[in-house]
Amino acid sequence: MSLAGHDVSVSGPTAFVLGGGGVLGAAEVGMLRALFEVGVHPDLLLGTSVGALNAALVAAHGPGPEVVTRLEELWAGVAAGKEVYADGPVRQVSRAVRTGTHVHDSAGLRRRLRHELGDRTFEDLVVPFQCCAASIERAAEHWFTTGRVVDAVVASAAVPGLLEPAVVDGEHYLDGGIVNSVPVGRAVACGAERVFVLQVGRIERPLRPPRRPWEVARVSFEIARRHRFHFEMANLPDGVVAHVLPTGGGSAKDDSLLAYRSFAKVHDRIDTAYAAARDYLAEHL
């Protein structure tokens, strides 16, 4: 899907917007590979949740095949070891009872990010990068643009109920997807005239009424996520062009209760999204 204010070539700043979506975020790696192969590089990277993780690595190491390889290796490692959600059922229940707020420890995620990003600050990055989280105390969307990148990404990816709220400078944060899952409007506000949206596939699938109690929250969240995204896409200013890259796959099984732990299809997601994005770019650029 491509939307534009005017049907003209765009020479202004280019932003990559990488949306949230947990394990489905592997698709964004394939999209990055396709973009870099045709010479499309970002002037600005914006990420939410797992999109913040993917974007942060590109921002730290620079766009190109090398960072795609690094991302593929990261995702392969996560798939093999389940570093982020490695706890078994007994430990999950124990932690949920003890904390009352979450079932997994965020230490695995933080450890992996430290391995990839070290102590880099936003000022150290090769490409400007921002990521979004939800402030609990202010009940507000918060954009990290300074400080340690690892702290910001952990905050952006603090999935409610799965990981504990992240603390940065005394303030508590939850996953940025709560407030801005696919931040197209932020890209426009930052001056981008060409926006490439790297999304995980959920906005491509029809949304149906929930049939089970645990589906109610997911459907409610999807309404909020999609409403904001479609509103921002429908209200792009004149002169701004946005390309929503396709994933090329996915199904309703991706939204099942335990799908967040299913890493078996990581490589397939990357390759399928790469092929779909490559074909899209060949047609639209």
Structure described in brief:
The protein is an alpha/beta fold and 285 residues long.
Topology:
Blueprint: E1 2-4, E2 14-18, H1 26-37, E3 44-48, H2 50-61, H3 65-81, H4 89-99, H5 107-117, E4 129-135, E5 140-144, H6 149-156, E6 166-168, E7 171-175, H7 184-189, E8 194-198, H8 213-234, E9 241-245, H9 266-284
Helix pairs in contact: 1-3, 1-9, 2-3, 2-6, 5-6
Outline the biggest β-sheet: 9 strands, mixed
The average pLDDT is 86
Radius of gyration, CA atoms, in whole angstroms: 18 Å
Question: Which structural class do you get from the secondary structure elements?
Answer: alpha/beta
Describe the structure.
By secondary structure, the protein is α/β, with parallel strands linked by helices. The chain is built from nine helices and nine strands. It has helices at 26-37, 50-61, 65-81, 89-99, 107-117, 149-156, 184-189, 213-234, 266-284, and strands at residues 2-4, 14-18, 44-48, 129-135, 140-144, 166-168, 171-175, 194-198, 241-245. Strands 1, 2, 3, 4, 5, 6, 7, 8 and 9 form a nine-stranded mixed beta sheet that branches. Helix 8 (213-234) links the parallel strand 8 and strand 9 (241-245). Helix 1 (26-37) packs antiparallel against helix 3 (65-81), helix 1 (26-37) packs parallel to helix 9 and helix 2 crosses helix 3. The longest helix is centred in the last third of the chain and has 22 residues, at 213-234. 42% of the residues are buried. Mean pLDDT is 86; it is low at 4-9 and 257-261.
